[in-house]
Write a structure and sequence with these properties.
DNA Methylphosphotriester Repair Domain; alpha+beta; 3 domains; globular; sequence-specific DNA binding; Homeodomain-like_sf; Arc Repressor Mutant, subunit A; 4 strands
């Protein structure tokens, strides 16, 4: 059930610079100069941006002639439970701007809502809802720094049902308001 996620090159670049394990298994970073590919969370020295290419499928990156990193071992198979969690994460990333309920996610991956919530929390230490909020806030943060959309437009664009909820969740996850975040990024802080 592997599904390509909808992230731009810049968004994927931000994730590898941050060594974000949230995106492991959803895309791979290939370095043209070394012919090595890694997970987004790999702690190896970061390559130059111009030498990077992103792939959504491990078979595709290997067919392109890249070999697996010995440090992060991206070729090591996940357990069936972790593959299900990855499918849920890919679903959330592709549906983040829609109204998504637990029953929709469970139906998509073919398990009960109860089992999904329990398994997802065991593997990620988060509920699917809190994970979706993180994805939405990450996308909002990207839009705040790369577009001139208003905070209201961004809150709607990333799928929040109300601006007040957007502000509350953004502040909880980023420790500042969307307006403060945009100003800090513009001032280089």
């Amino acid at each position: 059930m592997d599904v390509a996620i909808k992230l731009s090159f810049e968004e994927m670049w931000e994730k590898i610079i941050a060594c974000d394990p949230t995106y492991d298994g959803l895309f791979f970073t290939a370095v043209k100069t070394t012919n090595i590919y890694c997970r987004p969370s790999c702690r190896s020295r970061k390559p130059k941006k111009i030498n990077v290419k992103f792939y959504h499928d491990i078979d595709e990156v290997e067919r392109a002639g890249f070999r697996a990193c010995k440090r992060c071992q991206p070729e090591v198979e996940d357990s069936p439970q972790m593959r299900l969690v990855r499918d849920v994460i890919a679903f959330l990333m592709n549906q983040y701007n829609q109204k998504v309920e637990l029953k929709d996610i469970a139906s998509h991956v073919g398990v009960s809502s109860y089992y999904l919530e329990r398994l997802f929390k065991k593997e990620t230490l988060q509920t699917p809802r809190s994970y979706l909020e993180k994805i939405r806030v990450d996308k909002a943060a990207f839009l705040l720094t790369s577009t001139s959309l208003t905070n209201l437009e961004i809150s709607i664009e990333v799928g929040f049902q109300s601006p007040s909820n957007f502000y509350k969740v953004f502040r909880r996850l980023k420790n500042c308001s969307p307006h403060e975040y945009r100003n800090m990024q513009e001032n280089g802080n």
